[in-house]
Amino acid sequence: MRKLLLLLFLPFHLSAQHIPYAAYKNYPFPPGLCAAAKGSRIAWALDEQGKRNIYVAEGPDYTPRQLTRFNKDDGQEISSLCISDDGKWVVFVRGGEHSGNWDT
User: Fold this and answer.
1) Backbone angles phi, psi at 54, to 5 degrees
2) What residues form DSSP beta bridges with 79?
3) Which of 40-44, 47-51, 66-70 bottoms out in mean pLDDT, i.e. has the lowest?
4) C-beta atoms surrounding 87 within 10 Å
């Protein structure tokens, strides 16, 4: 009986969970993360609706702090994110050819 009820209500349950594609596309995600060799400092890139920025945090509480302020979606990727061994310097590449093929 329970299985029959489940089959009857399954279409209503599935239709109630329709999420538009834009909701997935606009979800922020970190394409890069790195940590200092000494200490407890980390850095990461975050893509928020196409606006890519660098954030840093230091332990033990790891409160995020935005390091860059790229405020528009200009299609420029952030790659090669690194943090120095002591955590004082964060370096990255913004824009350009990231596939390693510089010949056009």
Assistant:
1) -105, 135
2) 93
3) 47-51
4) 18
